[in-house]
Amino acid sequence: MAENQSPRVLSVQSHVVSGYVGNKSATFPLQLLGFEVDAINSVQFCNHTGYKAVTGQVLTEKDLDDLAKGLEENGLDFYSHLLTGYIGAESFLQRVCSLVKHLKTVNPKLTYVCDPVMGDNGKMYVPKELLPVYKNSVLPLADIITPNQFEVELLTDIKINSVDDAWKAIDVLHSKGCPIVVLSSTELGTEQSLLAIASKKVGSNSEKVTIKIPKLPASFTGTGDLFAALLLAWMHKTNSQLKVSLERTVSSLQAVLKRTLEDSKGERTSKAMELKLIQSKSDIESPKIVVSAESVF
Predict the structure, then answer these.
(1) What are the start-end ranges of the H helices in the chain?
(2) Is it the case that residue 293 has pLDDT exceeding 50?
(3) I want to staple 36 with a disulfide (CB 3.0 to 4.6 A). Which of 8, 104, 217, 252 is the partner?
(4) CATH of the domain at 247
């Protein structure tokens, strides 16, 4: 692939037949924003785990190896970006680390965006063996990382009770080799809003930004996957302008969630609360900025 062609993303995360999480949540928005998307599904389930029944298959590290080798043999392994989300096994995550290293030899300019999906609200939903792999192997390889508050606490061993704690934890992640850290959501806001906190540290240059995310009276699934995909896209399209990228990411996300809430007509079942991505096409392509980020000096 020539470097002047459309940006190409390899996205390694979960897949559902019905609904919008993982690759189903990330692919369409990335395509709308001009990216070729190649998807590897770490799991393939009938639907997300919020439903009463979940059936399907789990990809093994050997399966991943087979796919990666085929892409390499056919010269299809030049990517501008790698995006990883939910991965459920330590051995699979170790193989992803090998894949990152290989893809960065093919394209040294490759940007690796990692959403270290491990848990939320104080509870891990992946095996604890994945944590040291994220800490020791993934962080030094990642260019952008998008954990939630609980995941940052796991990665840094710092309990976040204040914004100052969050900045300290972010500095720890920078020290481990990741130049751009975005806490996609924290409980450090108000009763009306969550707070996202972002930091970019490249050489002696640094940029710090916060943004308030209005809370909506419902819980959604797939929002973290959508957030990471949108952030990847806008960081590329704005030449890594953190403030602008965050505003566009959060504004698109708000539009999708509001539409999902409106269309559910008060019903709170998993099916009714599936993200309304297709209906939000214009909000993804041209987000109307509804929240402004603040630079921190």
Answers:
(1) 22-32, 61-73, 90-106, 130-133, 149-156, 163-175, 223-237, 242-264, 281-285
(2) yes
(3) 8
(4) 3.40.1190.20
Q: Is 120 among the domain residues?
A: yes
Q: What is the mean pLDDT of residues 178-187?
A: 95
134 in any annotated domain: yes
- Which residue in 77, 143, 165, 225 is the catalytic one? 225
pTM higher than the cut 0.90: yes
Kindly give the pairing relationship between strand 180-186 and strand 193-202: antiparallel
Which residue range(s) make up the domain with 176? 8-296
258 within a domain of the structure (yes/no):
yes
Edge-first strand listing for the sheet containing 293-296 = 56-58, 36-45, 8-16, 81-84, 111-114, 144-145, 180-186, 193-202, 205-214, 293-296
**Domain membership flag for residue 155:** yes
The whole-number pLDDT of residue 15 equals 97
At residue 1, the pLDDT reads 44
Mean pLDDT of 115-140: 95
Q: CA-CA distance, 219 to 260, in Å (whole number)?
A: 11
Active site residue 77: no
What mean pLDDT value characterizes the chain? 95
Q: Please state, in angstroms and rounded to a whole number, the distance separating the CA atoms of residues 231 and 196.
A: 12
Angle, helices 223-237 vs 242-264, to 10°: value is 140
Query: How many structural domains compose the chain?
Result: 1
